[in-house]
Each structure stands twice: as structure tokens, then as C-alpha cells.
Amino acid sequence: MTTKDLANLIFPNITKTVEDIEKMYPKREVDGEVTRFAPSPTGFMHIGGCYQAITDYLIAKNTNGIFYLRNEDTDKAREKEDAVKIIMDILNYYNIVPDEYEYEGDVVGKYGPYIQSERKEIYHVFIKHLIEIGRAYPCFCTPDELSVLREKQEGMKVRTGYYGRFSKCRKISIDDAYDRIKNGEKFVIRFKSKGDFENKIWYEDLAKGRLHLSENDIDDVIMKSDNMLPTYHFAHVIDDHLMHTTIVVRGEEWLPSVTKHLEMFNAFGFDAPKYIHTPLIQKKEDGKLRKISKRKDPEANMEYFKEMGYPKDAVVESLLTIINSNYEEWRDNNPDAPFTEFKFDAKKMSSSGALYDLMKLEDISKNIISRMNKDELYEESYTWACKYDEKLKELIYKDVDYYKNIINIEREQAKPRKDIAKYSDIYNLIYYMYDELFNPEYEWMKITDTTEIKNIINTYINEYYDRDDDKDTWFNKIKELAENLGYAANMKDYKKNPDNYKGNVADIATVIRVSLTGKKNTPDLYEILKLFGIDRIRSRFNKI
After folding, report:
1. Contact 465/530 with Cβ under 8 angstroms?
2. Residue numbers in the chain where pLDDT is lower than 70
3. What are residue 37's DSSP bridge partners?
4. How far is the C-alpha of 538 from the C-alpha of 105, rounded, in Å?
5. Contact by Cβ (8 Å): 35, 149
6. Three-state SS for 293?
7. Are strands 188-191 and 221-223 parallel, antiparallel or unpaired?
8. Can you tell me the distance from the alpha carbon of 25 to that of 34, in angstroms, rounded to the nearest whole number?
9. What is the distance, to the nearest Å, from the Cα of residue 121 to the centroid of all Cα atoms in its chain?
10. Cα angle 36-41-43, degrees, rounded to a multiple of 5
11. Which end of the chain lies in a sparser environment, N or C, as judged by fewer CB atoms within 10 Å?
């Protein structure tokens, strides 16, 4: 028996050769980089996945290259229903749209299938080739035997794994392997490594620089026994070669595997792509840094940001600030430019973890929302509320113009208000503007005596209020009211001689504000007064 006989036994229906497959995937006619986002459809889209997808997208756009989506679904035990839909929805929602992809039967691009489980025959061609050239072999070890092997290695205090003298099935003759397969014995296919762990190789990571790593000597499983699908280690090597990927962006947890992947590329004589191993996304908790957890942290799930109502641009911007350390400076200098004009530099990625801060996201989001005009904010917030907030949806729907007027207070001006960080904030920021929801617990400040409060608001509404006043005239009347009631009209005078006054003009304005809204902090009081009008003002004053 020969290795070719063994290969034909395992793959009797595979007649194509590696050369045949290569012809199906000719070199791309593109000058720029070819990047891919290759998630496993095992549930929700993790923030780390979106971080990598944005990096892939940016690299491709910087270089007039190609960004494609490949779903790596070979681990069927972990695959979740609708996971592919979730991935596509997130990419489309954040405008990180791949140039090539496969979704719901549509294939966009000439290098598919873009779903690994549909590429099974392709992998078998390459695995068959490895068996024929003696670089892969069947392994009959059972899970129990592998557990015993691990325990033995631990007892010997040596590295655990299937390598070297511990590669039991390496020693099986071709005839014996042939007979065992003919007899129906279960097996996997392992890659036969030629590496020596004691030897070191130099590897250049685009983000982490030049690294000195041990050669791979592990005989990894490259095809599973249950469904004859490949493992990640093997499938991505074949796919990135055939799809002509030039840069692979993936998490640094894959860095220890890079030497085994490089050896697999070399076994076929393929040029390996360049790798960027991205830092872990971390958060600060109780003064300490830890990895963001999908069990503990809602922000690990990209759906969280949609549900909370953060503008999509804010989320992308917040991730860009941890993708490259100089992004914030660039954004400050280019406030209106699309982020694709930023020149990504792998060397400016963090080497010690990327700290994701929700407070920074909120600051970015506040700035973005503050620049929206009232119509833009109405459209965005109403669209969000229709899916996530029934109470806000009802408020908006029953009087759109009134809602627009509320959210437009201190908006379309040189220094707009920045109190809205996300659309889920809006209801609690405006509900008191609706009479049917106005049931205040008054947040009185310095002036708390009810008699004095009533005197202030009655004097104001009967003697000073005029809806037609411009803002300067309005405020001068507030100062005149303060002075006539024994309060300092000028803050400098009050600070100089506080004992000479009952309070100051700010105290008077606070009484009016709290009487109208129940709150000590609101948007501009002058604009609220104009929006309410005399009847609503009197009605609210009469509740005191």
C-alpha cells in the first residue's frame, strides 16, 4: 500500500487536484490589500469582532482593496440559528459593508462559497494531497486515550499535546491504517509537523513587531471524524490562500497558533498572508483592568449599543479611538471627514490591551447628537423608539412638532447642548414637558419657603412675563424682579456683600425653572417659557 492508496480510500470521490482548485481562484486584479472578516456564527456579534471588522474595512478602504465576509461555520456543535443574520445585520447597520459575501442564497463575489461548510470538497482535495505527500495521516486515538496521554504528560511534567514521541498514530504503517479504516474504525486526520519546538523562528507581526517563536511541532487535527469538516487551523489556511487574503486581522489569542499556520502554508508551498494580532478589549473595574466578558458585560454584545440607542457613528468612532492611538487627534483636526480617510497604522495599535470606556463613548455620542438638527434627531430617535421604547414612541407620535420643538431647545446654535448621550436618555430628559406626565417632586434649591416661592412666581407672571421679549430683555426683567424682591441682580454684588440680600438672581431663576419643570437642571429656561406659553405657565405655577 502507498500513501496514494490510503488517500483514495479516505476520499474515493475526490478526483480534482490542488491544481484544479487553484485554477478556480485566479489571482485578484486589485492593487490594494485584501482583508476578510471571518466570524464563527456561534451567537451574538462580540465587540471584539466588530473591532476587527472595522480594522479590516479601514485597511481595505485605505488601499483601494477588497474587504470580504467569510463565515467559518465548521464547528457545527457551537453554531446558533440566525447567527449569520445577526452578523450581516450588524455589519450593515454600522455601514461596514463587505465587498464580497454570501447571504440567504445570494453570492456576491467570484471567490466563494463564502461559507466554509459549503467548501467541504475543496478542503478534501487539499487534505487528500497532504496524505499523498506524507504530510497528513489518520489518527485512531479515542478521547479516553488522549486523556490518558495528557495525564501521562502532566505526570512527566512535559508539554501536553500530540507531538513527537507522543504522536502514537504517526507510527502506524500505511497497511495497518488502511485495514483499520476498511474495518470501519473511527478516525481523524492529523497534520504531520516537521517542526522542532526547541528551534526558534523569527516572525514579523504587523502590530506586535518582530517576535522570536518556537517552531510548531504539534500534529494538529485538520479534519474531524463526525462530519469530515476541517478544523479552523486548516480551513483558514486554504481559504486565505484561495481567496488571496493579504492581511489577516484576528485576536491575539491566536498568536500562539501562528507557527502551526505558517507551517501549513509552507507544506503546500503557499505564501502566507501578513497577520495583525489585535489586543484584547478590556474594561476598568474597581481600578483594575480585565478582559470584557460576554457573561458579565452587556457592552460585549454589539446589540447592546443598538438597544441603548447610541448613534451608529458614535460606536464606530469609539472603537476607532482604541484601534489606533492617533485617531482622536486626527478626528479633532478633521471633524467632518469620513473615517475611511484616516490612515490606519498597525504599529499604532496597543500592545498591552485596548481599554474600552463607556464614558468615552458617551462623550463621543453627545458630540455627535449635539450636531444633529431637530429633524435629524427626530428621525433617528423615532426610528429607534419604534423598536425599543414604546413610551417615547407614543410621545413623539401624538405631536411631532411639539417633540421637535423640545429637542431643538439649545440645539441649532454655535454651542449646542450636550445632555443626550443616547436615544434611551431622551424620555427621562423631556417627560416633564408633557402635562399628563408632570407630577413633580420639586427640586428646590436655596429658596424653599412656599410663601416666598409663590410671591416670586406670581409677581413674575403678573408684572414681568412677556412672551414677545427677546432673550436679553427677558433676562433684564428677571434681574429687575430679583432686585425689587430684595435679591441681588448682579452676582458680583452678591458675592461682595451676601448679607445685604435675600439671595441672588440665579435663585430667582431657579424658582421659576423648578416651578415649571420640577427640576433644578433643564435646557434653557427662556426657550422653555416661550414653548409653554402663558396658559401652560399659569397652570404649572398654580400647582405650587
Report:
1. no
2. 77, 79
3. 69
4. 63
5. no
6. coil
7. antiparallel
8. 14
9. 34
10. 130
11. N
Question: How many beta carbons lie within 10 A of that of residue 507, not counting itself?
Answer: 18
How far is CA 212 from each of CA 161, 200, 203, 207, 237, rounded to the nearest angstrom?
21, 6, 6, 15, 22
Which one, of 231, 16, 260, 1, lies nearest residue 117 by Cα?
231
Task: Please write down the long-range contacts of 296-304, taking CB distance under 8 Å and 24 or more positions apart.
Answer: 299/47, 299/356, 299/358, 300/46, 300/47, 301/44, 301/45, 301/46, 301/47, 302/44, 302/45, 302/46, 302/47, 302/49, 302/50, 302/90, 303/44, 303/45, 303/86, 303/90
Q: What is the pLDDT of residues 358-372, one digit of tens each?
A: 999 999 999 999 999
- For residue 335, which amino acid is it? P
Q: Establish how many alpha carbons lie within 13 A of residue 540's alpha carbon, considering only the half-sphere containing its beta carbon.
A: 29
Task: Please give the angle made by the CA atoms of 160, 161 and 163, to the nearest 5 degrees.
Answer: 120
If you count them, how many residues does the chain have? Answer: 544
Instruction: Give the 3-state secondary structure of residue 161.
Output: coil
Contacts of 343 (CB under 8 A, 6+ apart): 62
Domains of the chain: 3-15+120-278 (3.40.50.620), 372-425 (no CATH), 450-541 (1.10.10.350)
DSSP calls for 162-231: SBGGG-GGGGS-HHHHHHHHHTT---EEEE-----TTSEEEEEETTTEEEEEEPP-B--EEE-TTT-PBP
Q: Read off the amino acid at residue 363.
A: D
Report the pLDDT value the prediction gives residue 78, as an integer from 0 to 100.
Answer: 72
Give the residue from 119, 137, 140 showing the smallest Cα distance to 128.
137
Rounded Cα distance between 72 and 432, Å, is 50
Place of cell 523569527: 202
351 touches 279 (CB < 8 A): yes
Cell numbers found for residue 483: 432686585
Q: Which of 12, 52, 18 shows the shortest CA–CA distance to 35?
A: 52
**pTM of the entire structure?**
0.91
* Three-state secondary structure string covering 356-387: CCHHHHHHHHHHHHHCCCHHHHHHHHHHHHHH
355 φ/ψ sector (left φ>0, alpha ψ -120 to 50, else beta): beta
Pairs from 81-87 (Cβ < 8 Å, separation ≥ 24):
83/41, 83/42, 83/43, 83/44, 84/41, 84/115, 86/41, 86/43, 86/44, 86/45, 86/303, 87/39, 87/41, 87/45
**Angle between the N-to-C axes of helices 258-268 and 232-242, in degrees from 0 to 180, rounded to the nearest 10:** 50
Sign of CA dihedral 417, 419, 421, 427: negative
In tens, the pLDDT along 156-182 reads 999 999 999 999 999 999 999 999 999
